[in-house]
Design goal:
Elements lengths: L6 E6 L3 E7 L6 E8 L5 H12 L3 E6 L9 H16 L4 E5 L3 H11 L4 H25 L1
Parallel strand pairs: 1-4, 4-5
Antiparallel strand pairs: 1-2, 2-3
């Protein structure tokens, strides 16, 4: 596993971006916040999170199609990654997120969270799934 330190994960979407963070030991991933994609203050808000949590790595969900091919959303995610890379000197890794939202939805339903409540946090939970996958990949 890479060095100790927090990591952030982003589940990028056209409307919302879910964000998750892990503890400094890279063990526990927790939902953090949902950001509005069209907010003029988006990068300022992201840089504030980075300043606050000082991550050693950032994961961004890569929304490939179930076939493994790139869909329309991949280009937007790659543009978001380039924007992040221009703003920070932290390794940024794309993580296959094909089933992150599905996994998050199932987890929330099994925890008894209603669909209405889930809408408010589903993007954060998808970011948690991306973060957990990134941490697992780093552990080898």
């Amino acid at each position: 596993m890479s060095r100790l330190g927090r990591r952030l994960a982003f589940d990028y979407g056209d409307v919302r971006i879910g964000v998750a963070v892990c503890d400094p030991d890279g063990i526990l991933a927790t939902p953090l916040i949902t950001l509005a994609s069209k907010d003029p203050q988006l990068m300022k808000n992201i840089l504030s999170l980075i300043e606050e949590y000082q991550p050693v790595k950032i994961y961004v969900g890569n929304p490939k199609l179930l076939s493994g091919n790139d869909g329309d959303a991949v280009a937007k995610v790659k543009a978001f990654k380039v924007l992040l890379e221009a703003s920070v000197e932290i390794p940024i890794v794309l993580i296959d997120e094909r089933l992150s939202t599905v996994t998050a939805t199932k987890s929330m339903r099994s925890a008894g969270i209603s669909a209405k409540e889930a809408r408010l946090t589903i993007d954060q939970m998808a970011a948690v799934a991306i973060l957990e996958q990134g941490l697992s990949h780093d552990r080898g």
